Structure formats: structure tokens, C-alpha cells
Amino acid sequence: MSELNTENGKDLPRAETSPETVKTPTTADSTTESTVQTTVEETSETAVETEEKTPVYKKIINIFSYVLLAFSLLTVIFTVFASSTFNKKKEVFGVKMYVVLSDSMKATDFAAGDLIFIKGVDPESLQEGDVIAFISQNKESYGETVTHKIRVKTVDDKGKPGFITYGTTTGTDDAVIVTYEWIEGKYVGRVPAAGRFFNFLKTPKGYITFVLLPFAFLIVVQGWNCVVAYREYRGEKTDELKTEREKLQKEKEENQRMLEEMRLLREELKKQKEQGACKEETEGDDAP
Question: Does one domain contain both 108 and 156?
């Protein structure tokens, strides 16, 4: 009788109830920790898989697109800049820029299609052998900017100081003496073929080749990237829903398992209670 607890006239087992009652929260804690650990592992694996999903060809296309975009933008900027400065007698950082139209100086300094830089100077400082740009007074090229080399310093019919100039390709002197008032400046440098590139950009073929086609390609690539990104987004959402369903299914199975354990526990307690009642009844019958 010392091993039984009497409540409301009934005998209940005491030692067996306490351990089983503590068992349920322990199982729940273990399940929670397991679920958290599984979620962390799945998140890490998903991040790694996402990084590995980006194919090499896609990275190459993206890099090429960025380079092409930069080139196209620079081409547009160059075209706008050149249209407002080349052959306009407009100074930029102290120099004027002209596109060479003939090969009269090809033998020594520059050729047709080159972009040359002319810096304003004091005509008195010019010497024999310098290359100067001047406004031609010759009937054949009147008003045009010509860039030739100084052969010798002289004066014209009116006594004005000037220079006899010539093109180094033919070596022939220009017909009219270049006086100081028509001198634009001194040749100081060039960019080979830059003028030819600028002239080509002004043509329909140049515009299509270096502006229209690159931007059309970029639009197509970005459109395709949007489609791929949308598909990946839908795929990720589908995977998330699938993962969530699997998680709910696991939780459902776990809950069912816990309910089954509780049911077995209740049956065990009921069985022990019945055994205790039978033992009490037997001991009562055996008592004198």
C-alpha cells in the first residue's frame, strides 16, 4: 500500500506517471531543433546552387554587352563632340581640330583622314620648317583652311610680312603668300585616321554600324535576360511552394507520430491503473 497514492477513494500509481509526463516537451524541443537545423542546411544548399546555376556563356554575354554599351555611348559622345568642334575653328583646351582632306603633307607629317591639332601662336615666333594652318587666298581653294609647311619668310606686294608655304608631297610652293592676318595657328599633333572614322560615322552606314546595331543588340540581350529572369523567378517560386508543402507534410507526419505516442501513453496509463486496481482488490480479498 505504500507504493500507491489514494485520491477520491481510488488508488493511482505514482512512480510511473512523472517520467512519462515530462517526455512530451523533450520530444517537441528535439523536433524543433531538428527542423531549424534542416532549414538552415537547405538555405545554404540553395544559395550554393544559385551561384553554380549561372553558366559561363551568360557571364561572357553580360561582359560583352557592357563593353558594347560603353563603346556605343563613347561613339555617340564622340560624334556629338566632333560635330560641334571638328573643322569649326572652335578652340578646345587651347587648340583647334581639323580633319585632313588631302595628302599634300603625307610625305612628312600627316595624311588624309587624320585629325590634326592647331594651336594659336604669335606669327612672329614662326620659323622655317614649321607647319601652319591658314585660310587660303588662292583662287582654287579660297576660304578653305590649308595646313602646309613654311619654306621661307617674306613679304607680299604691299609689304606685309608673310610666309611662302608648300606641300611636302609635291614640294610645289603655294601661289599666294600667307600673310599674318590669315594664319590660324601652328600644327602641334595628330590622331591618325580619327577624321576618317568621324566622316564614316556621319554616313548612314556608319550610324547603322556603330550606333543602331549595337543598341539593337543590347535591347535584344536585355529583353532575353528579362525573360530568363522571369522564368527563374517562377521556377524559384515553384521550388519554394514545393519545399513548403514538403515541410508541412513532415510537420503533419511528426504531429501524427506524437499523437500516436500520446495515445500509447494513455493506454499504458490505463493498463497500469487497471493492474493497480486488480492488485488492490486481490490484496483486500487476502486480508484477514
Answer: yes
